[in-house]
């Protein structure tokens, strides 16, 4: 299937590993000119060598004022894949923790999108794909802060989608469930410490909660990202697509 994005320029954040790397791989395979962004130069260089035709830009998206520097380094793009990292774990009633998480996920992600929107508007074509989490549809202590700030980003993205639709730009979110990455392993280890269970027990319980009985692979999320970025998805916008192994039981989400 031709996704109609060969030759498009795609910028993928958090691209040195995990879901971001999976998105970069698939977009490159579809013929996109891929710019991979990450903050660790060594890891980024190693990742770039595995994605044909890609180039890397070192940037810490948590730094103030990084957006214009990244725009200057990358130039205008057709496809922007935001991929905010793991937000701080902590109490929902601790103001400093909540403010830090809000700044690092919805606020800075929207600022990044805002930096690249003028170029998309000028071109009359653009795709924004935000990697969030299936935690936006759930509540609970384990993912309370992470889910809350990503839910904020989800709402902002849906509102922005309506604002820019007439400019030929779509804005969507992917909400992955557990994906077999280092980030998932870190989460499992943290839950094991918090609950007193073994890492194997936490991992087994998480697998048992999935109807498919397996974790997603980064490239599977990347394939969904490429479709949402494609010409075929031109009339899909303002949506959040779950990729959670069937765990979410709400039929109308």
Give keywords.
253 residues, alpha/beta, Rossmann fold, globular
Structural write-up:
This protein is α/β, with parallel strands linked by helices. The protein has 2 domains: 9-179 and 216-242, Rossmann fold, CATH 3.40.50; 180-215. Helix content is 45%, strand content 15%. The protein has helices at 18-29, 41-48, 66-74, 95-123, 144-164, 182-195, 199-208, 218-228, and strands spanning 9-13, 33-38, 55-58, 79-82, 126-131, 169-176, 240-243. β5 (126-131), α5 (144-164) and β6 (169-176) form a beta-alpha-beta unit. α3 (66-74) runs parallel beside α4. The radius of gyration is 18 Å and the shape is globular. The model has no long low-confidence stretch (mean pLDDT 92). This is SDR family oxidoreductase. InterPro entries: NAD(P)-bd_dom_sf (IPR036291), SDR (IPR050259), SDR_fam (IPR002347). Pfam families: adh_short_C2.
């Amino acid at each position: 299937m031709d996704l109609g994005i060969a030759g498009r320029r795609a910028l993928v954040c958090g691209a040195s590993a995990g879901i971001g790397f999976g998105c970069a791989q698939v977009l490159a395979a579809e013929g996109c000119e891929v710019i991979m962004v990450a903050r660790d130069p060594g890891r980024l260089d190693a990742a770039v060598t595995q994605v044909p035709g890609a180039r890397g830009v070192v940037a810490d998206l948590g730094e103030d004022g990084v957006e214009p520097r990244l725009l200057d380094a990358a130039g205008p793009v057709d496809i922007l894949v935001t991929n905010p990292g793991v937000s701080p774990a902590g109490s929902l009633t601790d103001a400093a923790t909540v403010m830090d998480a809000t700044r690092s996920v919805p606020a800075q992600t929207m600022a990044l999108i805002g930096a690249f929107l003028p170029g998309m508007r000028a071109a009359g074509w653009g795709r924004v794909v935000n990697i969030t989490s299936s935690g936006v549809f759930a509540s609970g202590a384990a993912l309370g802060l992470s889910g809350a700030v990503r839910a904020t980003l989800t709402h902002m993205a849906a509102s922005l989608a309506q604002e820019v639709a007439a400019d030929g730009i779509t804005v969507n979110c992917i909400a992955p469930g557990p994906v077999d990455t280092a980030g998932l392993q870190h989460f499992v280890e943290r839950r094991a410490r918090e609950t007193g269970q073994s890492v194997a027990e936490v991992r087994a319980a998480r697998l048992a909660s999935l109807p498919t009985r397996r974790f997603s692979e980064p490239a599977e999320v990347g394939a969904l990202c490429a479709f949402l970025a494609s010409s075929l998805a031109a009339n899909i916008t303002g949506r959040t697509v779950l990729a959670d192994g069937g765990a979410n039981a709400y039929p109308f989400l």
